[in-house]
């Protein structure tokens, strides 16, 4: 957070909480657009004998044009991944490794495990608490941190998918060169991995991810945080209550903290706030 | 009104003349010297044969005249028919000598040589020792693979009419004056410059036998060929009507040889014999920069533990990964939607 991106913004009398900077939002939009196009040009090939494939594939240029669209989008997706990894690496080095070295308590493992997108024990407890809530054992939702287990899942699943799908895609794209390094039968496995992992990724993104960020009753018809970078107070309370309390406290708004979802007043939190 | 009464009788004559003009070129090309179309021109002409199947006896003259056999007279193939009306016709023997003269030898044309090749191929009914193979009735005869194909001029000259380039025909007309000859010769050459069927049609043609599970089992074949081909990039592109991808014949026929000279995988003359297989993919037309190692790609891998165990287990891993990931998440989604209907309810019946 900075002067450019204040932690809390007011608009039309409502509070909005900072989530993503412009760089991250642009990365996400390019990545999402390339994935949608990759699915539209890849799935008709995977299910080539299906009736619908005969209509979608010609829309992208058929067997001549669609593979070009697919390769261009695949390249863009991998470039976004490379850029993202570069940005994270630089960020970790500048903001975590160098200060730790100066302070004399440098531990790479500790730094990496402490990153906001790395799963931790609280995520496991949050999953347990969510199941309790969903199965009617309690009426309180888990009090999520800055990034919940769902968001970490949504982050690491495409990360793994990109590496598997991208790597096998590069091999199949350059099969002539690859054939000098690997036997042809490895391409059989590349095709299975590329195609099946892509199906998993598509279903994961279009069912699970879109449900959480667009179709869930709290955000329907569309979440806007991927465009604005800011999340409404209502959704912060529902999904990120612990972090919400922390931000409100940091901004001197202790007395305006809303109760947790399903709660009946200001609840005691792990941070000791009442 | 007077003006109209003069015009009205002219219309039918104009329409009839126009129809006749449209039909004239095809009528002029017809090979119906025996006047067979006197009866066979009627679309409903059919009968039930001894086996109880319906035999459609209608001949569409317009379509027939665009086929590769248009110049052959009806009695050139149906040699047993000598008079009209005739008795039930015998099956056509494709090896018969027809009335066409083969231009390079000026001998009567016949497909006899095809049988010579076929008898030495994997599709022969006799084995290497001259003994009859098991299940000889499963081996293809001419009409199992071939029908009477239409001319299929090159696909890349589709600018004016499908497959007909007026520019090329214009060059023909400089020296050749007879329009029918130009039409036939042009179509014959351009059809023969490529395959008469698309990769999908060829795969379907082979698949009529090679995807028959009982036939595959009877002959101990390792795969349902069209199904497994359809799982490759080539097969998928063929499904989407790509004309450029290799089909069955591109890999299974030795370059420069006829489709009728196809051999078993364990025959050293076969293009798919282990010693030759490396040369299939890296031909100048396909993947010229590729190593012969590309030939070890398992084109006919099936999702079968027996046939391709490594691919089978690899696919199973992804099925489990997909199910194991999505099913719990979809369960959570379902419970989430349900929970939102009763936001303050608990099984203990009280608010916490």
Describe the protein:
The complex is a heterodimer of chains A (274) and B (352). With 274 residues, chain A is mainly alpha-helical. Chain A is 64% helix and 4% strand. Chain A has a domain at 35-115. In chain A, a hairpin with a 2-residue loop joins strand 1 (8-11) and strand 2. The model of chain A is unreliable at 264-274 (pLDDT under 50). With 352 residues, chain B is an all-alpha fold. Chain B folds into 4 domains: 1-92, no CATH class; 133-148 and 195-302, no CATH class; 153-193, no CATH class; 308-352. Chain B has 16 helices and 4 strands. In chain B, strand 1 (46-48) and strand 2 form a beta hairpin. The radius of gyration of chain B is 29 Å and the shape is extended. Chain B starts with a helix and ends in an 11-residue tail after the last helix. Classes of the chains: A mainly alpha (274), B mainly alpha (352). At the A-B interface, helix 1, helix 2, helix 5, helix 7 and helix 8 of A face helix 13 and helix 16 of B.
């Amino acid at each position: 957070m900075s002067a450019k991106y204040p932690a809390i913004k007011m608009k039309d009398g409502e509070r909005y909480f900072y989530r993503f900077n412009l760089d991250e939002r642009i990365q996400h939009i390019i990545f999402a657009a390339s994935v949608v196009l990759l699915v539209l040009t890849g799935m008709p090939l995977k299910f080539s004998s299906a009736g619908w494939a005969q209509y979608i594939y010609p829309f992208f240029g058929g067997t001549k044009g669609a593979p070009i669209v697919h390769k261009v989008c695949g390249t863009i997706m991998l470039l976004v991944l490379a850029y993202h990894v570069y940005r994270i690496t630089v960020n970790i080095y500048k903001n975590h490794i160098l200060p730790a070295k100066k302070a004399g308590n440098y531990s790479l493992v500790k730094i990496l495990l402490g990153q906001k997108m790395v799963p931790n024990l609280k995520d496991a407890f949050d999953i347990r608490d969510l199941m309790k809530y969903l199965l009617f054992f309690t009426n309180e939702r888990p009090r999520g941190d800055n990034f919940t287990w769902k968001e970490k899942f949504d982050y690491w699943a495409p990360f793994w998918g990109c590496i598997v799908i991208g790597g096998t895609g590069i091999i199949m794209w350059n099969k002539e060169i690859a054939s000098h390094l690997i036997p042809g039968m490895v391409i059989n496995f590349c095709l299975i991995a590329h195609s099946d992992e892509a199906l998993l990724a598509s279903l994961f993104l279009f069912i699970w991810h879109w449900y959480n960020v667009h179709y869930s009753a709290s955000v329907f018809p569309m979440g806007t945080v991927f465009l604005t970078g800011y999340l409404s107070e209502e959704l912060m309370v529902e999904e990120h209550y612990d972090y919400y309390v922390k931000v409100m406290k940091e901004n001197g708004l202790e007395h305006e903290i809303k109760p947790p979802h399903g709660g009946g007043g200001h609840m005691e939190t792990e941070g000791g706030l009442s | 009104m007077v003006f109209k009464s003069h015009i009205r009788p002219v219309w039918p004559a104009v329409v009839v003349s126009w129809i006749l003009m449209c039909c004239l070129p095809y009528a002029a090309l017809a090979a119906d010297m025996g006047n067979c179309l006197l009866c066979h021109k009627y679309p409903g002409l059919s009968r039930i044969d001894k086996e109880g199947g319906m035999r459609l006896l209608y001949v569409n003259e317009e379509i027939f005249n665009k086929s590769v056999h248009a110049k052959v007279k009806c009695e050139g193939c149906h040699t047993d028919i000598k008079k009209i009306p005739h008795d039930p016709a015998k099956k056509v023997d494709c090896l018969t000598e027809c009335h066409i003269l083969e231009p390079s030898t000026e001998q009567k044309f016949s497909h006899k040589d095809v049988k010579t090749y076929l008898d030495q191929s994997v599709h022969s009914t006799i084995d290497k020792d001259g003994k009859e193979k098991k299940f000889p009735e499963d081996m293809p005869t001419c009409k199992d693979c071939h029908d009477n194909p239409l001319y299929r001029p090159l696909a890349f000259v589709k600018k004016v009419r499908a497959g007909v380039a007026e520019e090329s025909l214009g060059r023909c007309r400089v020296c050749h004056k007879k329009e029918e000859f130009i039409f036939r010769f042009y179509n014959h050459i351009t059809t023969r410059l490529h395959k008469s069927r698309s990769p999908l049609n060829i795969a379907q043609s082979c698949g009529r036998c090679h995807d028959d599970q009982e036939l595959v089992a009877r002959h101990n074949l390792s795969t349902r060929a069209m199904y497994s081909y359809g799982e490759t990039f080539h097969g998928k592109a063929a499904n989407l009507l790509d004309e450029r991808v290799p089909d069955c014949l591109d890999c299974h026929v030795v370059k420069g040889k006829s489709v009728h000279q196809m051999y078993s995988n364990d025959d050293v003359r076969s293009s798919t014999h282990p010693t030759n297989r490396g040369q299939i993919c890296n031909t100048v037309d396909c993947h010229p920069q590729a190593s012969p190692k590309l030939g070890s790609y398992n084109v006919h891998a099936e999702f079968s533990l027996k046939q391709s165990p490594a691919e089978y287990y690899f696919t199973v891993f992804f099925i489990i990964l997909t199910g194991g990931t999505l099913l719990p998440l979809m369960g959570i989604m379902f419970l989430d939607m349900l929970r939102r209907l009763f936001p303050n309810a608990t099984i203990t019946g009280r608010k916490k």
